[in-house]
Design brief:
By secondary structure, the chain is mainly beta. Helix content is 10%, strand content 41%. The protein has a twelve-stranded mixed sheet, sandwiched between helices.
Length: 234
């Protein structure tokens, strides 16, 4: 089991059950701090990729993030199978690919390659201030008052990016991105992300177990940059 019944109960009791969406991966962090020391942020989000020029994907990701560490588990919604698991810490980074059963080991980093919900909100607000997104009206998302934004596509300048069309739904109360959509104007590629849950827990010996990497018997252990594979991970 991925976590004990006790940890699951703790999450249900403490995590704020707020629908929201993680932004498209934006590795690293901004100049402001991420998750405060002594806390662990829990997020649950879905991502769906469709289109004639896309590799179809529909997954649910659960992530546990602290000031210096992270643990991510991505599950294919249709099959319920784990496709990816990764942890980062100052000591090392581990990533397991469920399609190949490869376990890759890299040098660690003091800063997780993910943004917290608050960091994503600040990044988005900066984009609005730069004119990259324009408000197009008010809406209600899963019972929450929100603002609908439209993407201003640009090939250069601070708003440059790959997406030609897009929209975002942002919670009025927290600034969290409740849903984000981006893609090609002809519909050949479309990605929709929805943050289903987010909240924080106190970081203690019990909740720290949520950051633990799981065992993948028989996985091929690969040192990043190495030419040879080491013995299997146990």
């Amino acid at each position: 089991m991925y976590r004990s019944a006790l940890l699951t109960a703790a999450i249900c009791a403490v995590v704020a059950l707020v629908p929201a969406s993680s932004a498209l991966a934006q590795g690293g962090s901004d100049s402001n701090p991420g998750v405060p020391a002594g806390q662990i942020e829990f997020t649950q989000s879905t991502v769906q990729v469709t289109g004639s020029n896309a590799v179809p994907r529909f997954e649910r990701a659960k992530q546990y993030l602290t000031t210096h560490s992270s643990h991510t588990i991505a599950t294919t919604i249709q099959t319920g199978k784990v496709r990816f698991e990764g942890v980062t810490s100052p000591r090392r980074e581990l990533s397991w690919d469920g399609t190949t059963n490869d376990l890759t080991i890299r040098k660690g980093s003091n800063t997780p390659p993910y943004q917290s919900v608050a960091q994503e909100a600040r990044t988005f607000a900066q984009g609005v201030a730069q004119g990259c997104w324009t408000a197009s009206g008010d809406t209600v998302f899963e019972g929450r008052s929100a603002t609908l934004y439209k993407l201003v596509a640009a090939a250069s300048g601070p708003c440059r990016g790959d997406a030609q069309v897009g929209q975002a739904i942002v919670d009025k109360a927290t600034g969290a991105i409740l849903e984000r959509e981006a893609g090609e104007a002809d519909g050949s590629f479309k990605q929709v992300e929805v943050l289903e849950l987010f909240g924080t827990l106190p970081l203690n010996p019990q909740t720290a177990r949520l950051l633990h990497f799981h065992s993948h018997p028989g996985a091929k252990r690969v040192e990043a940059g190495a030419k040879k594979q080491a013995r299997s991970h146990r």
